[in-house]
Amino acid sequence: MGGPYSVALFVFHVLCVLLTLSEAGSQNTMACAPWCPANSSCASGTTCRCTPGFNSSSGEIFTDPLESCDDINECGPPMTVSCGKLADCQNTEGGYHCMCSPGYELISGATMFQNESENTCQDVDECQQKPKVCKGRSICINTQGNYICQCPPGLELNLKDPRLCIDMDECSSGQHQCHNSTICLNTVGSYTCHCRRGWVPKPGFQDKQMGTISCEEISFPTWTAPPEIKSQSLSGFFERVQKMSIDFKSALTQETIQYLIMSVDDLLKTPGDLEALDLSSRHHTATYLFSGLEQILRTLAKAMSGGSFIYHSPGDTELSLMVQEQGSGNITVGQSHARMLLDWAVAAGAEKSGPTVVGLLSSPNMQKLLANASLDLDLEKQTELEEIYESPVRGAQLRLLSAVNLVFLSNTNTDKLNSKVTFAFSHPWEMPGTRQELICAFWKSDSNRRGYWATSGCQTLGSRNGSTTCQCNHLSSFAILMAHYDVEDWKLALITKVGLALSLVCLLLCILTFLLVRPIQGSRTTVHLHLCICLFVGSTVFLTGIENEGGQIGLRCRLVAGLLHYCFLAAFCWMSLEGVELYFLVVRVFQGQGLRKRWLCLIGYGVPLFIVAVSAAIKSQGYGRPQYCWLDHANGFLWSFLGPVTFITLCNAVIFVITLWKLTQKFSEINPDIKKLKKARVLTITAIAQLFVLGCTWVFGLFLFDQRSWVLCYIFSILNCLQGLFLFVLYCLLNKKVREEYRRWACMVTRNKYSEFATSTSGSGSSQSQTRALRPSESGM
């Protein structure tokens, strides 16, 4: 060093040293000079010592005021500190500490330690941490000190974020196993193999392990006539179906559907011998048509090229189809007869291959086959009606108002749907009357394919302006019915049963009287006898068998209806024969004695037998109704009874008018036979009274089978009660000869009782003599 500056600096150091020595000498505890640098302390009066963890270039102790104490890196050479396995040394200012390597942690949960003996580092399971380290659908896999994110099949890692999985498009990348006859459709995380439009999965060619299918072109489903139904019309229809099957081409699917619907219309509009089938066979045919049409329309719809199709046939049958590969949300399908709202998920169901089909076929012509079908009321509805009417409800008389609507979907498992389907059915507006209700019903068949209407699972929401809205949790064939409930009136039933029982007793007394009273024997008594026999048999059958329990029209119900038809016709025929007898008595009184007994029986029993035989041969299914075993009102079959009854009543009325006119003329003659004329007048008036009572009874009786007329039902029941009683009074109690015979019988009974009493009270000897004395009088009686 040189110059004035160096000299001055030297002098300054010397002065500082002298001053330090001076202070040290005077004060032993005084610190060293203040020039010791940071991270150091005074070692002696002239030296400084670096604090632990620091060191100078001259060593731990130094005297040079220009020295500095620097941090010692214990984690680096040459002092490398060992923290043990799975740990790293971390240098700090003036020291160090050990920390577990990334992915590891101390058992105690602390973050650092000082030496290897304190090392308890173990692996951290990052997959259990929250929030999750792997995002989305990626799968976390723990490793020693780390983790990895893997993707499930069908997904791959995102290059921008390796913790996130994204969909892999197997269809575009060629990483799929779909057959060359199918179309690959990518889905999130996977793919599906679909048949091309107009193709269907080939039976037996499905790889369940790979989830792939093999497809073939759609063919017309097999549909043959039901073997148990014998009908030329039905056979002709299925011959047309077989021709459609042979000529079918998927490119002409819409034309095939149209031709099929027109063929169904031709079958139903001109049913021919279908109407001659019994009720069970007609309903079985309807069920068979429903199931076949559903299967064929569902199959053909999958071959259509367009997304929707609407067809209105010349026969007023309408078809609405909606076909879509994938769908979501609600869909509305419909036409003028009906509309339907449902969820696409319901339509697809578990169907994974092919398009989803929603179809609605509305046929007004189907009503003919479903006529006179019964209604099965579920327990909830039955309870509700009985609470309303406060009487048991045995069933309902039905009338179809709307078209019959067949619903079909790709989903074939429609017995219990996850979400309800809403319908709006159009029909002629009609205000329900007393005990009537508009109901939404569906067609149901039992194990024997016998069909009937049911309401379970369906709810009628409301009706307005000729449209009724319903909701159902299942699908079938639906219609709007006007139901007239058959409410059992216990008072009317009691009057009917008690009245008929009384009538039967009186008729039996009449029959015994006509058989046993000899003074009144004659042709008129023969007529009266057989009239009472017919009424007695008819009333007995009516009382025991008129009600059709179960609603099914079987052989028993048809036999009961036929017997009632025959017995009551025979009663009217015998009543007409009485008019003929009066005609011979009054008009031709001097020209003969009337018809012989064999001719009376031939006419009285033969004419009604002929009428019943012809009626049964023409339309045997006209015998029996769902509620009562009587003649069916449909197609005028009831006139097989009303016609002859009306004709007989009118003829008798004409005969009685002529008879009265002739009687008036004979009374005005110069020498009339007053005794004969009075007798003829009494007989004529009696016959007219009989005609009036029996005729009025059956005029009101015609309305007994229409429960809407309660007043007429009560009138009929009362007149029916009086019918046998009236005949007994008219022909027995008002007849002088019969009364005398009754008195004689009464006296015989009284004397016999007196004789028995006398015998029991007198002694044995006198008793025997009295008995012997009474025997001659008894024999004379």
UniProtKB/TrEMBL annotation:
<dbReference type="InterPro" id="IPR018097">
    <property type="entry name" value="EGF_Ca-bd_CS"/>
</dbReference>
<dbReference type="InterPro" id="IPR049883">
    <property type="entry name" value="NOTCH1_EGF-like"/>
</dbReference>
<keyword id="KW-0675">Receptor</keyword>
<feature type="domain" description="G-protein coupled receptors family 2 profile 2">
    <location>
        <begin position="492"/>
        <end position="735"/>
    </location>
</feature>
<dbReference type="InterPro" id="IPR046338">
    <property type="entry name" value="GAIN_dom_sf"/>
</dbReference>
<feature type="signal peptide">
    <location>
        <begin position="1"/>
        <end position="24"/>
    </location>
</feature>
<comment type="function">
    <text>Receptor potentially involved in both adhesion and signaling processes early after leukocyte activation. Plays an essential role in leukocyte migration.</text>
</comment>
<dbReference type="InterPro" id="IPR057244">
    <property type="entry name" value="GAIN_B"/>
</dbReference>
<dbReference type="InterPro" id="IPR017981">
    <property type="entry name" value="GPCR_2-like_7TM"/>
</dbReference>
<keyword id="KW-0325">Glycoprotein</keyword>
<keyword id="KW-0597">Phosphoprotein</keyword>
<dbReference type="InterPro" id="IPR001881">
    <property type="entry name" value="EGF-like_Ca-bd_dom"/>
</dbReference>
<keyword id="KW-1015">Disulfide bond</keyword>
<keyword id="KW-0130">Cell adhesion</keyword>
<keyword id="KW-0297">G-protein coupled receptor</keyword>
<dbReference type="GO" id="GO:0007189">
    <property type="term" value="P:adenylate cyclase-activating G protein-coupled receptor signaling pathway"/>
</dbReference>
<dbReference type="GO" id="GO:0007155">
    <property type="term" value="P:cell adhesion"/>
</dbReference>
<feature type="transmembrane region" description="Helical">
    <location>
        <begin position="599"/>
        <end position="618"/>
    </location>
</feature>
<dbReference type="InterPro" id="IPR003056">
    <property type="entry name" value="GPCR_2_ADGRE2_ADGRE5"/>
</dbReference>
<dbReference type="InterPro" id="IPR009030">
    <property type="entry name" value="Growth_fac_rcpt_cys_sf"/>
</dbReference>
<keyword id="KW-1133">Transmembrane helix</keyword>
<keyword id="KW-0677">Repeat</keyword>
<feature type="transmembrane region" description="Helical">
    <location>
        <begin position="529"/>
        <end position="546"/>
    </location>
</feature>
<dbReference type="InterPro" id="IPR000832">
    <property type="entry name" value="GPCR_2_secretin-like"/>
</dbReference>
<protein>
    <recommendedName>
        <fullName>Adhesion G protein-coupled receptor E5</fullName>
    </recommendedName>
</protein>
<feature type="domain" description="EGF-like">
    <location>
        <begin position="71"/>
        <end position="110"/>
    </location>
</feature>
<dbReference type="GO" id="GO:0004930">
    <property type="term" value="F:G protein-coupled receptor activity"/>
</dbReference>
<keyword id="KW-0807">Transducer</keyword>
<comment type="similarity">
    <text>Belongs to the G-protein coupled receptor 2 family. LN-TM7 subfamily.</text>
</comment>
<feature type="domain" description="EGF-like">
    <location>
        <begin position="167"/>
        <end position="206"/>
    </location>
</feature>
<dbReference type="GO" id="GO:0005509">
    <property type="term" value="F:calcium ion binding"/>
</dbReference>
<dbReference type="Pfam" id="PF01825">
    <property type="entry name" value="GPS"/>
</dbReference>
<dbReference type="GO" id="GO:0005576">
    <property type="term" value="C:extracellular region"/>
</dbReference>
<dbReference type="InterPro" id="IPR017983">
    <property type="entry name" value="GPCR_2_secretin-like_CS"/>
</dbReference>
<feature type="domain" description="GAIN-B">
    <location>
        <begin position="308"/>
        <end position="488"/>
    </location>
</feature>
<feature type="transmembrane region" description="Helical">
    <location>
        <begin position="638"/>
        <end position="661"/>
    </location>
</feature>
<keyword id="KW-1003">Cell membrane</keyword>
<feature type="transmembrane region" description="Helical">
    <location>
        <begin position="498"/>
        <end position="517"/>
    </location>
</feature>
<dbReference type="InterPro" id="IPR000742">
    <property type="entry name" value="EGF"/>
</dbReference>
<dbReference type="GO" id="GO:0007166">
    <property type="term" value="P:cell surface receptor signaling pathway"/>
</dbReference>
<feature type="compositionally biased region" description="Low complexity">
    <location>
        <begin position="759"/>
        <end position="771"/>
    </location>
</feature>
<feature type="region of interest" description="Disordered">
    <location>
        <begin position="757"/>
        <end position="781"/>
    </location>
</feature>
